[in-house]
Write a structure and sequence with these properties.
Length: 346
């Protein structure tokens, strides 16, 4: 089968022929992949940045966002059958640590990540533990099912608290930020403000339903937010960019007693900010978002797509043949795409 590999340390990836996965273990399944989508993490691995160099051990098949059908299953697998249409949780949880046993499997102490710690989904077939699979509603297009994992990041970030009638600020309109705009609307937000600096992503934010898009390089974000909210500031701040300045501006724009939900990953060892005046004395409630709640978030994501309350055709901007994967990575690295989906099979 064809697979996309990080074959050795250094920049770049290769596609090559490798053996198909063999007979699944008792609790495993083999999935024929229909669609796989490119994540920012895959771009980090392609570029071989300091995180990748410290974490990835080549050779390894990368990729962790996919949808497909089960073609073989182990003897002990229950609740899934050959022919089932599935997507996968990329967080391979152990099932027995404190977090797993108390409903927090997404932050498992023994977590392994598909396409990072074990062979991933940029291939024609994949063998995975059955416990990480979600049976997808048949109404959901495979192009959208393949991005349910990152869409779940947006869902988890946005749904930490009730947004009915609330004003919100989203910093960063990359693919997940764009999807988050639609989720916030579906959750009842009354005003959705987005901060973004890249022209392509500014248009992507508008396409996905932002009420106001502000370029903080061209105008004072905090002042504009205060004008838009009658001097109050937003009720909820969702950080999707991983930019330290965006985080600080978002915290300034947040009304006292508001909520902050942080998905963005910041460079180096983190950031500094005025914790006294922007957090403690404002009475802010802050959530750290790591992946998706397993499988609470998946249920919400599935229903939002099935009911068409969210239209991912506005966030999936490129659908390419599997052999044109290099072109997809180029779109991603230039910041000129939403989600990029690779068609692996029909």
């Amino acid at each position: 089968m064809k697979a996309i590999f990080k074959d050795k340390p250094g920049e770049g990836l290769v596609m090559k022929e490798v053996p198909e996965p063999t007979k699944p273990g008792p609790d495993e399944v083999i999935v024929k992949i229909k669609r796989a989508s490119i994540c920012g993490t895959d771009v980090h691995i392609y570029r071989w940045d300091s995180w990748s160099a410290s974490r990835i051990k080549p050779p390894i098949i990368i990729g962790h966002e996919f949808a497909g059908t089960i073609v073989e299953k182990g003897d002990m697998v229950e609740g899934l059958e050959v022919g089932d249409y599935v997507a996968a949780e990329s967080h391979i949880f152990c099932g027995h640590c404190y977090q797993c046993r108390t409903g927090k499997a997404h932050i498992c102490q023994n977590l392994k990540i598909l396409g990072v710690d074990v062979n991933g989904a940029f291939a024609e077939y994949i063998k995975v533990p059955a416990r990480i699979l979600w049976k997808v509603s048949p109404e959901i297009d495979p192009n959208f099912a393949s991005v349910m994992e990152p869409f779940g990041n947006a869902v988890h970030t946005i749904t930490v608290e009730d947004l009915t009638g609330k004003t919100v600020l989203i910093t960063g309109a990359g693919p997940i930020g764009a999807m988050a705009i639609q989720v916030a609307r579906a959750e009842g937000a009354s005003l959705i403000i987005v901060s973004e600096v890249k022209p392509y992503r500014i248009e992507l934010a508008k396409k996905n339903g932002a009420d106001v898009v502000i370029n903080p390089l061209e105008e004072d974000l905090v002042k504009r937010v205060k004008v838009l909210t009658n001097g109050e500031g937003v009720d909820a701040f969702f950080e999707m960019s991983g930019n330290p300045d965006a985080f600080r501006q978002g915290m300034e724009a947040l009304t006292p007693g508001g909520i902050a939900s942080v998905l963005g990953i910041f460079p180096g060892e983190g950031i500094t900010f005025d914790i006294n005046n922007l957090f403690t004395l404002k009475g802010i409630k802050m959530y750290g978002i790591a992946g998706r709640k397993i499988f609470e978030t998946w249920r919400i994501a599935d229903q939002l797509l099935k009911s068409k309350r969210v239209d991912l055709s506005k966030a999936v901007t490129h659908v390419l043949p599997f052999d044109e994967w290099q072109k997809g990575f180029e779109f991603m690295m230039r910041g000129e795409s939403g989600k990029v989906v690779l068609v692996v099979s029909d």
